[in-house]
Amino acid sequence: MPTAKPAVHHPLFARFYARVSVASEPAVAPHRAELLTGASGRVIEVGAGNGLNFPHYPATVSEVVAIEPERLLRQLAVSAALRADVPVDVVPGAAEALPVKSEAFDVAVASLVLCSVRDVTRALGELRRVLRPGGELRFFEHGRAPGAAHALAQRALDRTVWPLLFGGCHTARDPVEALRRAGFELGPYRRVRVPAAGPGLPTSPCVLGTARRPREDGD
After folding, report:
1. Per its UniProt record, what SUPFAM superfamilies does this chain match (predicted)?
2. Which residues touch 157 (CB under 8 Å, ≥6 apart)?
């Protein structure tokens, strides 16, 4: 099992995120519901945040292991887990070094988290490791916008203060291309736009879909 990375601690951002994520949830909740519809078996969710996905897990899910590295958000996720309709175990850990056994899960969920992991390639490698061959990755991620001008602005933000202010978030990452490079087989996906999470913040171009660990994958 990989060595765990140091704990993530962004207390100011965590408080900000806890407030604005709840405020924007009426617009985001339908995407969360679509993300999780039909999921079944054992599920691992990385970057669970304050647990806003938990109410959307269907009864066909037998267990959710929810990984959250940030201490305040993890505490909020624990409270949300107590209200969930399916068993949810919230544990500390980083996406790049998941504290679980290989090939232990039927479904993995990455929801608005790949923007802020320290190492996207390693995080996706870990998700592939913990999924059984043929297991499904469900993703709802924001990232690079279409159009040269918008993409240029995103790259400029990522090189300046944005990651420092927003808990390591990078706006210009391309989650679909990252999934391809990590060896996942892409399933259906579509582009969506999420309304601004707070005053003065831009709308976020997102992608929602599925991918699979190849059945012949022997890693």
Report:
1. S-adenosyl-L-methionine-dependent methyltransferases (SSF53335)
2. 171, 172
Give the CATH number for residue 31.
3.40.50.150
pLDDT of 13 reads 72
Question: Regarding predicted confidence, which is higher, 53 or 1?
Answer: 53
**pLDDT value at 201 more than 60:** no
Residue whose C-alpha is closest to residue 100's, from 127, 63, 62: 127
Three-state secondary structure call for residue 199: coil
What CA–CA distance (Å, rounded) separates 89 from 56?
A: 15
Whether residue 6 lies inside any domain: the answer is no
Closest C-alpha among 93, 90, 21, 81 to residue 57: 81
Whether 217 is in a domain gets the answer: no
Tell me the mean pLDDT in the region 173-182.
93
pTM: 0.85
Number of domains composing the chain: 1
The residue range of the domain holding 91 is: 11-212
CA atoms within a 13 Å half-sphere pointing along the CA-CB vector of 210: 15
Measured in whole angstroms, the distance separating CA 6 from the mean position of its chain's CA atoms is 19
Q: Is the dihedral of CA 121, 124, 130, 131 positive or negative?
A: negative
The count of other CB atoms within 10 Å of the CB of residue 105 is 26
